[in-house]
Amino acid sequence: MRHVLAFVIVVAMAAPALAQARKPVRKPAPPPAAALKKVAPEMSCPAPLGVGVRTKLSFCEVMAGRDPSGGVIIQVPPHKGPATLTFDLHNLHTYSEEQVKTHRAYARYTATIGVLTLDNTLISRAVVQNEFRSAADLVDRVGGGAGPGGVKAVAPTGTETITVAIPEGELAVSLLGEKLGVERIDGGASYSQPGRPIAVVSNVMLEYKPGPPPKAVKKR
What we know:
Shape: elongated
Number of domains: 1
Distance between the termini: 83 Å
Low-confidence stretches: 4-11
Mean pLDDT: 88
Largest sheet: 6 strands, antiparallel
Structural class: mainly beta
Number of strands: 12
């Protein structure tokens, strides 16, 4: 009986130690996810239209072409997962006060551009369509011209906000014009010749999760 009692006491004393030994070990919390960054990216505009006198936005013409290196080049920092590119797409109108006064200024524009990688892979297309009737249909007047108030005759009209997902690994994209359709009271026309202005972009922004920089290639 004494031996049984001693065994029970030993087991009872060892139980807390065994329970403590079996207690699961907490894994360290994973590091917090990197916060999204939103920036105005570096970009190369071969055909700048100018700066809006009211909005102070920089407007860039998108020309028709087939070679991505000749388009509007937008730099994309190293990113984890897809990066989100946004921009405002506009049509381009040549303003005439006389046409407005004589009710002959009507125009309906449909512009299509492509967002491509630098190896000429199409990521997405973007379209803006609007009608122009009066100066109220202009997004802004652009400074640096010979018109009244020092503005240019050409100006952006209509606005379509475009959102494009840029795949991980792409460090630059190009905006290239594809075609422009114009309908006026005296007829219509379509344009796609390389080097011709197709549309205008402004307010280019990029949102992304920073990723590691690309590995440097060791020279042998």
